[in-house]
Amino acid sequence: MKAVIIEDEFHSREFLKSVVTAWCEGVEIVGTAESVPEGVALIEAVAPELVFLDIEMQSGTGFDLLQQVRNRDFEVIFTTAYDHYAIQAIKYSAIDYLLKPIDLDELQAAVAKVRERRPGQVAPVNEALELLLATLKNPATEPTKITLATSEGLEFVPLEQIIRLEAAGAYTTFFLKEGKKIMVSKNLKEYENLLPARRFFRIHNSHMINIDEVKKMLKTDGGYAVMNDGATVMISPKKKEEFLQRIMQR
User: Fold this and answer.
1) Quick check: 138 pLDDT over 90?
2) Are the CB atoms for 38 and 65 separated by under 8 Å?
3) 4-aspartylphosphate (modified residue): where (predicted)?
4) Does the pLDDT value for residue 218 go beyond 80?
């Protein structure tokens, strides 16, 4: 897999190049660049399959670079020295990022995900980058879609299609309209932090619901929310008062 590194700090660029070469089998670094213009030219010259892209550079941001590249048919792993404002949007798009100093296990895991979904995934990857750029363009606007990375590839799910989420250890299952289910290898807490609180509510330790999809409430056995897909979800006693307030505010 051909890869390039676009990073404006020399030592960070050389360190990343050395650890990718040493620890990421099958990945060949075919070029590096230290600015947005150099990065655009490098990508168009070598057509990489993977781009390690610094978010903040003196010449602009990694997002500026993505806007300028004509064909975004490559995977991206962002790198950043701090918890950047754009991390939330990056998570929505299911694109990987690495916080500096880079952890080797996290690096290998990110590259492994790219390798798993790369064959035949050019169009979905392109769509994920488009979703990211659209979200960043209107940061005050609530996202309308979320990208879910599954074992089969990327799924782009409108938030209005999500009825509920259910935890199973380190995995979360999304229950969508028309009976569709999607399982992802992230825990429910991550989506509690990611999905808009206006619409989604952690009703129980193992369940999160779309408030707009609650059909009715049953008072038996402490309380259940009946969802539009027919599912009954137990209401945690600690969450009952807040749940009732949320329902009344719909």
Assistant:
1) no
2) no
3) 54
4) yes
